[in-house]
Write a structure and sequence with these properties.
The chain is an alpha+beta fold. It is 19% helix and 33% strand. The chain contains seven helices and 16 strands. The strands form two sheets. The chain has a twelve-stranded mixed sheet, with helices on one face. A four-stranded antiparallel sheet has the order 13-14-15-16. Strand 14 and strand 15 form a beta hairpin. The termini are close together. The N terminus is likely disordered.
């Protein structure tokens, strides 16, 4: 899926979402809540967070689907400079061992490795430093206009934050595909006795209704965690280092539409060796099993949507069994050598 490499989308809560806060007394109240919680979150040694998001199991951690079932996630963090952490859901896992990030999909023989800032888990990787989440919200509360509300009980403080969808939606294809690309409402609950973050819920507004897309089940602090268990990697995965620049004169010198044509025609003719570079994000064996022998029927002009850094090329193909499929092929060339890479859609 195109979101595998995009890393720009957002899911559970938030973090880099631009807030719409106003600088009234409510803003000062929010800053006060976060100002108390941040020092306490900074003292946390470990954290285990269990939550659910409405997402395809094997899609990236930032992706949402309003029609999907809730999928369980677990994040385990040993705080430090840098932190060691692990994020798992049913179809995808991500590990940071303090030096590198490793991401892989269940059942795939190919995984990806990058540096500490690889962003494979955006925005959920911000939970590796929970005080940073609060710092972002506090800075936005102090700096920008906002719509939010502070409610207090004898034991809890609830802060509700609303944010508008970010991106260009002249074509709304990616609208509501991530939290950042949605009109969202986030609910933070803080425990008054500890000033620690207790829970978060995220809602997306669509077609006049609100859909719960993310919700914490539990957040536990200062449990005993084994670094070896957290950083364990599968033994049957070949790792591709995303820090190594891709090069291809062929796929750097054509238009997006032509690149899409070349990729699909090579698949149909079972010439996967000719498109190894643009397929760098994919398990080629799995693609060959499904797409070898396809016939390209039509391509339409590419379009952009939301915050996706590439383009979508509408395609129509005949599958080897004779059925016809239509989809938007996601390709991007935002790498140093401007090489078009397949990023999803199939």
């Amino acid at each position: 899926m195109y979101r595998i490499a995009a890393g720009t989308a957002a899911a559970l809560l938030l973090v880099t979402v631009a807030l719409l806060l106003n600088t009234t007394g409510e803003a000062k109240a929010a800053a006060g809540v976060l100002g108390k919680s941040m020092p306490m979150m900074g003292k946390v040694r470990t954290m285990v967070m269990q939550f659910e998001t409405r997402t395809p199991e094997k899609d990236n951690f930032g992706a949402i689907d309003l029609d999907a079932d809730m999928v369980p996630h677990t994040m385990q963090v040993i705080m430090g400079e840098p932190a060691v952490w692990r994020l798992d859901k049913a179809g995808r896992s991500l590990v940071c061992d303090g030096k590198n990030q490793y991401q892989w999909i269940s059942g795939s023989s190919k995984g990806f490795v990058g540096g500490l800032q690889a962003g494979f888990g955006e925005p959920l990787d911000m939970f590796a430093a929970p005080y940073s989440i609060l710092a972002v919200e506090k800075a936005m509360a102090e700096k920008n206009k906002a719509k939010y509300k502070i409610t207090e009980t004898s034991t809890e403080t609830l802060m509700t934050v609303k944010a508008r969808a970010k991106g260009d939606f002249l074509n709304d294809y990616t609208l509501n595909s991530s939290i950042e690309e949605s009109d969202s409402r986030r609910e933070y609950v803080f425990d008054k006795s500890t000033d620690l973050l207790k829970s978060v819920k995220v809602f997306v507004k669509s077609r006049g209704r609100e859909v719960l897309v993310a919700e914490t089940i539990s957040i536990k602090y200062d449990l005993e965690l084994d670094p070896g268990v957290i950083t364990a990697l599968p033994g049957d995965v070949v790792w591709h280092d995303v820090r190594i620049p891709v090069t291809s004169e062929t796929f750097a010198s054509v238009s997006a539409k032509e690149a899409a044509r070349m990729i699909l025609e090579a698949m149909g003719e079972d010439r996967f060796e000719d498109i190894a570079v643009p397929l760098v994000y994919f398990d080629v064996a799995k693609l060959r099993d499904k797409y070898a022998g396809i016939k390209l029927l039509a391509l339409r002009d590419p379009f952009r949507s939301g915050q996706y850094p590439g383009v979508f090329v509408p395609c129509r193909i005949m599958m080897p069994d004779g059925t016809v499929e239509e989809f938007n092929l996601a390709i991007r060339n935002d790498n140093v050598n401007k090489v078009w890479l397949l990023d999803g859609g199939i």
